[in-house]
Amino acid sequence: MAKIKVKGSEIAIFTRNEADYICITDIARYKNPDRTDDLIRNWLRNRNTIEFLGIWELLNNPEFNPVEFDGFRKQAGLNSFTLTPSQWIERTNAIGIISKPGRYGGTYAHKDIAFEFASWVSVEFKLYLIKEFQRLKDEELKQLGWDIRRNLAKINYRIHTDAIKENLIPPDLTPRQIEFVYASEADILNMALFGLTAKDWRDCHPGDKGNIRDYAEVSQLVCLSNLENLNALFIRENIPSAERLRKLNQIAIHQMSLLMGDTRIKRLKAGKK
């Protein structure tokens, strides 16, 4: 359950079936904290609202009940007509609005519908809501991009260490010796790309946590992923470590010169499409 702050009000958001739902009870609370349910019911009884909700459901929900929708549409606008979120959901089998009980209870609506409700409450509030919602999505995209890059590096690291195990580590080495070989191979990549070993970096950054790769740029992580695959290939071809380092360094120089000017890399770094 995520939350954004819009003009001093906290608005809850959750995801269902890859769709974002925004708490319209929280939106109503911005207008009148004591009558949130009344505001939502007043909005629902509006003919334009019924038309909007019905069309949205027809476009997005194959299980929607159009017969019940027509019944509500004919009554909408009459003084005697009332409608609650639960009635709309139960009788039309709607998916655009959700009533949630419990700690994070309230009425939630698909973002398309929530923005429409926000516009009815306050056009100004709607614009701020859209801005903060997009900021949240940008942050999620940025985090997703970082997770993908880190997981890619981990997958390629597995390929790399498997090649070391199969080709460089005799069966009778002790665990400490194996760890040393892995570290040595990791430093071949570090030297090829960064120009220094992990120890060199720690000596230069005594106050920093993590390792040299945790502070790498996006372009460096992409290049590192490629170098890990290439080094695994070179190991299987029995190329000596000194020669591998020379080859990998040349490849790193060439790839970084290309990646630094790639606009897609720049967008990935910024967390944008």
Write a structural description:
It is a single chain. The protein has helices at 24-31, 36-44, 47-60, 66-75, 85-92, 111-121, 123-167, 175-194, 198-204, 218-236, 241-259, 263-270, and strands at 2-6, 9-16, 19-23, 97-100, 106-110. The protein is an alpha+beta fold and 273 residues long. It folds into 2 domains: 2-121, no CATH class; 137-270, no CATH class. It has a 5-stranded antiparallel sheet with strand order 1-2-3-5-4. The mean pLDDT is 84.
Largest sheet: 5 strands, antiparallel
The parts where pLDDT drops under 50 for at least 5 residues are: none
Total of DSSP H or I helical runs spanning 4+ residues: 12
Radius of gyration: 28 Å
- Helix proportion: 55-70%
Order of helices and strands: EEEHHHHHEEHHHHHHH
Distance between the termini: 24 Å
The total strand number stands at 5
Number of domains: 2
Decide which structural class fits the backbone. alpha+beta
Residues in β-strands, percent: 5-15%
**Overall mean confidence score, pLDDT:** 84
Strand order of the largest sheet: 1-2-3-5-4
**Which descriptor suits the 3D outline?**
elongated
